[in-house]
Design brief:
The complex is a heterodimer of chains A (about 625) and B (about 110). Chain A is built from 32 helices and eight strands. With about 625 residues, chain A is mainly alpha-helical. The termini of chain A are far apart. Helices cover about 45% and strands about 0% of the residues of chain B. Classes of the chains: A mainly alpha (about 625), B mainly alpha (about 110).
Amino acid sequence: MQFDPFTIPFDIGLYFILIYAVVRCVRWFMDLSRPDKLRLQRGFFGRAFGQSIREIFMESLIHRKILKSNPRLGYMHMSLAFGWFLLILFGTIEADIFGESHLNAPYKAIFFKFFNPEHGSTGFEAFFAFLMDLILAFILSGLFLAVLKRFSSKVVGMKKTTRLKPLDKIALTSLWLIFPSRLLAESFTSGTYGTGSFLTGSLGSWLASFLPAEQLAYPFWWLYSLALGVFFILLPLTRYMHIPTELFLIFARNSGIRTGDQTGSYSEIQTYSCSSCGICIDACQLNFSAGITNIQSAYLLKGIRNNDNVNDIAQNCLLCGRCDKKCPVGIELTPIRMIRRRIGETEKEKTTVLKRYLPDRKNIVPVKSNDKQVYNFLPAVESEKTDILFFAGCMTHLNPAIKNSMIKILNASGVKYKFLDEKGGVCCGRPLMLSGQDKEARELINYNSKLIWKSGAHTLVTSCPICYKVFKESYYLDVEVLHHTQFIKMLIEDGSLKLNFLRKRVVYHSPCELGRGSGVYDEPKDVLKHVARLEKTDFEDDNSLCCGGSLANMKLSFRQKSKIAHDAAAELTKGNPDILATACPLCKKTFSSATETHVADISEIVAEAISLVQIKRNSGKKYFSIKESADIL
Amino acid sequence: MVDFGFSLLKARQINYDHNDRSIAGYIYEREPSFRLCIECGGCSATCTTGNFTRFSLREINILIKRGENEEVRHEIRKCMLCGKCTLVCPRGVNTRNVITLAKEAFQKRGINAI
């Protein structure tokens, strides 16, 4: 039986982490709600299993998403994760074929060279030794990048990298030590016995030429084992907990489990799946425009893991969703932030080391509010019957140009509609929701729902993406909700709207709530292509910028907001377009004070392009009376 | 006493020594732009809530600064946080945060804003 005391730290670490991972996964599974449990069970024995295995291979090992967006950073992550996986895989195969028996204990595969120093000189053995050296070189190249990244993150094409806790630093150091110590240990052993391939062999014989290789090998094998052991033991307390958690997350997500709006097991799994890679920091406009560097999602999740009071971090965010789309792990960052906003301020808890290994399940009581109705001053609901409702929204009322353009379009197309909030309506409830006051928001939602329901409409058109998102997601109505760009596209397609082509160059800014928030990317662009020459910007679709005016952030100062708006507008108007088009009254308002370029809503551009013949035919006098009232405004 | 159908007006003096102006202090500390308010009333003119009821952010600002919290806590929850006031403010006061902070301050003092 081959055994040596130096393998003990590794053995302890390995068995600890395996048992720990199983215990944590069982606890998470038990904490899931009943439907989620069923989903996971069904997913595990169904098609989701294959998908998950594929995703684990592509994302957790190869890091395909990072490779696509940033090849150098992706290579760094891939070499460490995939390289280590290959090292373990081929190490086990090697030990199985050439070791003393089949199905060895793990330590025999990891420390194969120590127990079989003579191995690897000829034929098939040499091929395996070459392969193992190649993989080790692959990992070391990635490690080299990782060390450089700590000192200058620009090396891997990142502007900022995450700040670490002391414990993270110890774990990081032990992780860094693992592969160099393996290299040296194998080299010294190879040097002594004259074996080893291109890396360990040549380094070993060179080192043996002036160092006592035989004596030095043993301490380095100890160091290798210790580094592994320390890394495994500290893993649950550090960000490296993401390695086991991510596997569970991928299975859960592919089984159809989503975050929802309450804290629970799934959001805890996501919290631990964050590897603090720092991609969200680079994506955040508060970072690169406003210079705020402590509120990004990586820090939010870190704060939640440490039981800190994260209210300030949760509140200071535009909720633009850029980080959400870029997260390589696919953590639902925006819903998690919304949950924290609902929870509000919390006390920092004192924890012991034991408690940090097995944290309690949190039962956070929501902020108490008295049950009195807040908005009981609202008038009784009265509604006329109609087919199509137009809801302008608060922000559109601040932009009469958009409102009038929409009226012009609706009249010209000859549809039968009613203007729901012509004399100023009630807020849709989204701003209250964004600030975490769901109960109050629900009151407004109920009020508006009654209005819409009593009108008997089948379609609701809104001009404001903020309203659009909340109508779509939080109103339980049997009504088709359309943003005005979608509605205009419909009108164009069924021929009720005839438009001229304007000879203007237009760039399109996709509003956060409409684009990333609701997935409406194409309709606004199609409408624009129909009436003008649409040009591309560097920030399209998922990568589009936030104007900085977002209602989600109340903590930004006026100056910081306008800095974000100026930076974003400057990026979008690089090609000197005639018009900066957007589909949101709030974006329009924010941008118009931040750039020299003419900023217009799509409805304004469309209204300008309507052929006069059509206006006369469909609306006659009606339009001109509106035009007069618009002039007064 | 004979009821003539009218009475004496209540005293309307504002005693800064007795009024609790800590709510204003709480807001100043966290939202310095609150100091910039010139009480122009632009916010009240555009207010969504003000369209339905007698609710004026300008008035609330003045009352908070004077420390007349009793009136404020009745009014403040009527706000719908829609954000029109922030956009029209000529001084760049972050009005939504002012409202939120005032609510928070009342809550921290154990007085529920009614």
